Amino acid sequence: MKRTFIFSVLTLALMMVCQSAFAYDYYVNGIYYRKATQQLPGGGCGETYLIVVNDDDPNTYSGDVVIPETETINGESLRVRYIGSEAFYGCVNLTSVTLPNTIVNIGFHSFADCHLLEVIDIPASIQQINSNAFSYCYELDYIFIHTNQPFFLWDDAFADINDHVHIVVPCNCIEVFEAAEEWQGIQLYDDCGNVGIVENKTATMDVYPNPASETLTIEAEGLVTISDEMGRVVRTLFVDNKQTIDLQGLASGLYFVKVGTEVKKVMVK
Fold this sequence. Notes:
Structural class: mainly beta
Helix content: under 10%
Shape: globular
Order of helices and strands: HEEEEEEEEEEEEEHEEEEEE
Number of helices: 2
Mean pLDDT: 82
Radius of gyration: 18 Å
Strand content: 35-45%
């Protein structure tokens, strides 16, 4: 396992070539990106992809941020693969971030000092979380892991929050994670539907409009998850009475909004 992790780190380290020397190369739909090309072992270039960065302002991002799986740059469709080091560092007004299922790496201090961030979903595509990625996120209550296999985790990836954050792995996967060296000593919770860590004051919920196009209002109290028809969680947020969310980045189709044991279907056009 350790040898596999080390190989993964070396492979990811090679994926940082052909980058611009500037803080960012492109600004598209509210997100700053740097373009890079993967260097393959033995030479040659592989996939060209995008890294989420900032514009050197600690308050670059605020509110609810949705990162797409792909973005079109000069007519070229590129996958978003990295959350760059310090990409969201010090964004004290950031309330939520939706990570796409294309992200493989979360960089150093990428979400450090995001004081309003309460919950985050780590997609199944993840391969590595770096040092101090979530340092000083004192309001962060839940980190949901959506891969069945442990990935490379730096020793202090959860520094300063490990005493209060609930790190939730897929159902029946705790033993696999606990057996991995990098995950030993980290308190984990099993997401089997009866974990008992998600507190909802009430299971009563209302969502509107339905169908929805640009925004969706949710009236509920507690942890709310929104999943697509394939069961993939696309949004996770805490709602205190009522909250309106932007549907930007969500494809048209049927979605399931859940709070507690109550589930409502919503059609997004």
